[in-house]
Amino acid sequence: MGQLPAVVILILGIGAFAHSARAQTLPRCRSLYIHNGKPLPETEAGKYGLVECNHGFTFADGAIAKHMFCVRLPGRSVAIWDGVKPDCVNSTLPFSPLPKNSKTCKDVQQEGSTVIDPDGDGRIQPFTVNCILINQEMWTELGHNLAKDTTLKGPGNIDRYLNVNYPVSNDQIEALVTTAGQCRQYVSVRCYEMSTFSGQYWWKSRQGYDMANWGGAPTNSSKCACALSKNCAGGRQCNCNSNDGVWRSDSGYLEDSAYLPVSSLHIYDLDDSSEQSVVTLGKLQCSGAKDACTFNNGNCAHSCTAIGEQAVCSCRDGYVLAGDKFGCLDVDECSSFNGGCDHVCSNTVGGFQCSCRTGFTLDINGFTCTDNDECILNKGNCSHTCSNTEGSYRCSCPTGYTLGSDLHTCQDVNECQTGNGGCDHYCTNSQGSYSCSCRPGYKLDSDGHTCLEYMSKNTTKTCECRLRAEPPHTGLGTHLYDLTTLIYGETQLWASDDGGQSVYSVLNRFPNFYATHKRQTTGYPAAASDVDCVKVFQNCPRDCVRMTRLILGKEKLGMKVAGEVFGRLTNTTLGQNMCDKLRREIDSPGRTIAITYDPHACGNEVVTYPLSQRLCCTLVPSPVGHLLAWNSMCEDGDTFSIGNIIG
Predict the structure, then answer these.
(1) Backbone phi, then psi, for 378, in 5-degree steps?
(2) Of the four, 15, 140, 391, 593, which is 20 to 30 A from 627 by CA?
(3) Cβ atoms within 10 A of the Cβ of 191, count?
(4) What is the pLDDT of residue 146?
(5) Where is the secretion signal located (predicted)?
(6) Which of 482, 483, 479, 463 minimizes the C-alpha distance to 548?
């Protein structure tokens, strides 16, 4: 018997290509030249044909069968077969006939290299895989470009990436893993002196997602298999994170088909010469098969039900099945009786939605509209008073405020800007109100506006108590802080801490002011016709010392005062306020702070007593450069932060 001629067998698909399912006039395929010049039988455009070589022949690239699609080319009156020209040539390869509609190796039931078509007669071209029998079950294997036991060594980049290439297209991989019953891929790493799994991700999925788990561990669990049994080296989540000078390993199967196969491996911590790693990535292995609805949802727009080998489509509520039995058409519920809505009916894809006009709320039944009391929720965003109205609401303000342009916020009215608020002397505005105060020597009347003189004109001799830095030689030293102003009245001592805007009785604020030996002996001068400068000099030095101790109290230089930090007013410590005024660094043991008194019209300022606490100022770093910070303990060293400045 002579040698068989090289012929091709055309096996036509049983139905039209999925994307061409809608009714249309299809051209005919003609004049396809094949080996020894014989044309293929004509067929309809829009279908796949499986061209298979006879025994002893293959295509030029070694394939024994190819799918080609019948298309119409521009300017041609007939359609032709698209793809590689199916010309069969002599081959010494053993013949392995491809069963019709073989989707996986389970259908082939024969080990070795073979061609499969996971989506049947769909749009995905068939491709070559390896079939292998594992535990009495036929598995489909797909290899890649990485060699077994790939060795990586330091020094070099701390991050190493192994890109994985497969001999088929992404669409063919997608068809394989989505139609298979299960898929897996073995990964292994042996490491020395490394923290392999400390990088941002460990491998990339077929979609390019960053994944953080290793073989044998759940998806994105940041664990290896040893962590599940709690026996990883050093109690870590992976053996290869121990970095302990011992060869370690982590291995196992990745089994989440939603992300397989691996497209890239990320090996971390290879920047030192002592670090090395050996990486192995197994072939993608898949077994079993899902039903007719698994791949591309059976080409159904909504729901797919597998009945035998056929996919039957159905639609969700709000849709009807289209004439092609695949698509779903939206139903406009609002076209009939406004969809049952009280106010507005809006058709949506696959449904509809009722809504209400402004000022109304949709009831829980989804159809009825009721008046919305906007004031219930957060007072309608009104800053003060919210009043509900039919279908709306309005905001209003109490006395002392006016409604802003946003019609929600109440803004304070500054009463002091109009006629000084009716105050005789000083008017101080506050949120929603204001208050009056008087100059030294006057007190506020019961009407809250009028100032009445409460000290005679000859009782206005004053003495100002200050804090100054000890001068390096002679003089008063740098002025650091105005503590208080003492006012010697006819029968009692007054004081003002705010430059005279408000005055208080010293005995009312400090009942024990005179509880010192000298004060008990000397006492406050008895009522006299006037308070002259002699009496000021007699009392002011001791009074300033006593007031300083009472005002500073236990906090001393840590007392909170108003100050300016980074160009804004804030509370800071008295010590920090002094450092800001000195503008220089003062090391331990620090600078003495002296109490001074200024008798004003009676004479010049005089130093009277030193404070027990000394002042130290230290330069500390900050985002805007070095700043002076008050060193409360006068300790050596840079132990201060921005917190020392702000207080």
Answers:
(1) 55, 35
(2) 593
(3) 29
(4) 92
(5) 1-23
(6) 483
